[in-house]
Design a protein that fits this description.
18 helices; 448 residues; single chain; three-stranded antiparallel beta sheet; six-stranded mixed beta sheet; alpha/beta
């Protein structure tokens, strides 16, 4: 058979003759190259094996605030090549619960969870978390954490989380709309708030339809609705639960006059025609306030970033009072799940970073959250930020009247049923006493 590649057809490609000495050194060289490249591959695999990958589940909102968090995560990853954190948005907190429970039951939890402190009791009961007392005790960041936040970190005598950010709620408003309605004084009581809301409800173009409502109220059964309603219950003299060791079975709503009064007040705002409802489960969105479709909205400092970007005028006043000043202390903590000692150590390293002065300052500047780190609050950057946004002082000042939600197991069941009651009243399906009575009956069936 004709062989085009045969040497006799290509004289210039005749076989070369090498001396035995040269063959020996060529063989040595080839073996050396193979050894070096093999070692390099092994080293690369070894380096990759040394990198610990940490998964963080979070529900940071609105989206611009998630961008701030991602930048901070990227900064951590750049400065910690041996630890790489992947931040995953897994929905709002109400949407997260089924995923969290499924992950725990399936023995596939994330390394870190961003969530409000009320989940602690339930996760401890499921034996899903590790206490962080010892690691925090040996960390320099412990003494920098706001001491008022330790109550949200502790359960049954142990510390189960590291604070990520803190906040409370006030009433955001548009000063230009107040001025246009001839309102000179900010409301300090429920009755004054109701009167102001009526004055701010206007048909600006004369077409017979309201195009500016006085206030926006959150619609939905979710935790955000409950969180923004609780200050009104507390201000009305109500308590969700009492006793030194509160538990779900001790929740009293049927004869809770403060809760009934708070529900009635929100219902009165609807009946007056001066309040409009948010889209379901989207009460945290401030687009209607930014656009001027509403003049007031109960929300927190996390909304500052959106207002900063929008360029509209805005300000804040404390939650109006019925009997006592009150606000909800909120924010989220970072929980460490039971995984491996190596993963847990890496996860704590990130949690420690999240509570540091540098992280907290950048988070606060970008989102409006109140820093959990005392050094951050005193920092030159944050003081300059406060001069630019004096509204923050309202949240810092009223924090002393703040109340935390219970962290006993099954708080989520309480919250879910409270959310249903609030929603039914806002939609006119039940009166406040009826809603509280129905809710108490449900809770009694579950816990008694």
């Amino acid at each position: 058979m004709y062989n085009f590649f045969s040497p006799r057809h290509h004289p210039q490609r005749q076989r070369r003759k090498f001396s035995p000495y040269l063959k020996y050194w060529l063989l040595v060289l080839l073996v050396g190259v193979l050894i070096v490249t093999g070692c390099q591959a092994i080293l690369r695999r070894g380096e990759e094996a040394k990198v610990i990958h940490v998964t963080l589940w979070q529900g940071v909102n609105p989206p611009p605030n998630r961008d701030v968090l991602q930048r901070l995560v990227d900064k951590f990853n750049q400065t910690h090549p041996d630890i790489q954190v992947e931040s995953l948005y897994v929905g709002q907190q109400d949407q997260q619960m089924p995923k969290i429970l499924a992950a725990v039951v399936g023995n596939a939890p994330p390394d870190l969870l961003w969530y409000n402190p009320t989940i602690a009791g339930q996760l401890v009961e499921l034996d899903a978390l590790i206490p962080v007392d010892e690691m925090l005790e040996n960390s320099p960041v412990k003494d920098e954490i706001d001491p008022t936040l330790f109550g949200s970190m502790e359960y049954q005598g142990k510390i189960w989380s590291i604070p990520f950010a803190t906040n409370n709620v006030g009433v955001f408003y548009r000063p230009s709309l107040f001025k246009a309605a001839g309102i000179e004084n900010l409301p300090r009581t429920w009755e004054e708030l109701r009167q102001v809301a009526q004055k701010l409800t206007r048909d600006r173009n004369g077409d017979g339809k309201i195009d500016q409502y006085g206030i926006l109220l959150p619609l939905g059964k979710g935790e955000f609705t409950v969180f923004t309603w609780l200050p009104f219950m507390w201000s009305g003299g109500g308590e969700l639960v009492s006793g030194e060791s509160p538990q779900a079975a001790g929740v009293n709503l049927k004869d809770n006059q403060g809760a009934i009064a708070a529900l009635q007040f929100w219902r009165d705002l609807i009946a007056d025609g001066s309040a409009t409802l948010s889209e379901p489960e989207r009460g945290y969105e401030v687009s209607n306030l930014v656009s001027g479709k509403v003049a007031m909205q109960v929300t927190g400092p996390w909304s500052l970033g959106e207002f900063q970007e929008s360029g509209v005028d805005f300000d804040v006043f404390p939650i109006p009072i019925k009997q006592n000043p009150a606000t909800s202390i909120g924010g989220e903590n970072l929980f460490l799940f039971k995984t491996t000692p190596q993963q847990q150590k890496a996860a704590f390293k990130f949690a420690e970073y999240a509570a540091s002065e540098a992280f907290q300052t950048e988070l606060a500047l970008g989102t409006g959250y109140l820093p959990v780190n005392l050094q951050s609050r005193k920092s030159r950057k944050y003081q300059k930020f406060m001069r630019k946004f004096p509204q923050i002082q309202v949240f810092l000042d009223q924090a002393k009247f703040g109340r935390s939600r219970p962290i006993f197991p099954n708080y989520t069941r309480i919250s879910d049923n409270l959310g249903r009651a609030i929603e039914s009243v806002l939609l006119g399906k039940n009166s406040p006493p009826q809603a509280m009575n129905i809710t108490q009956q449900r809770l009694d069936l579950i816990f008694k």
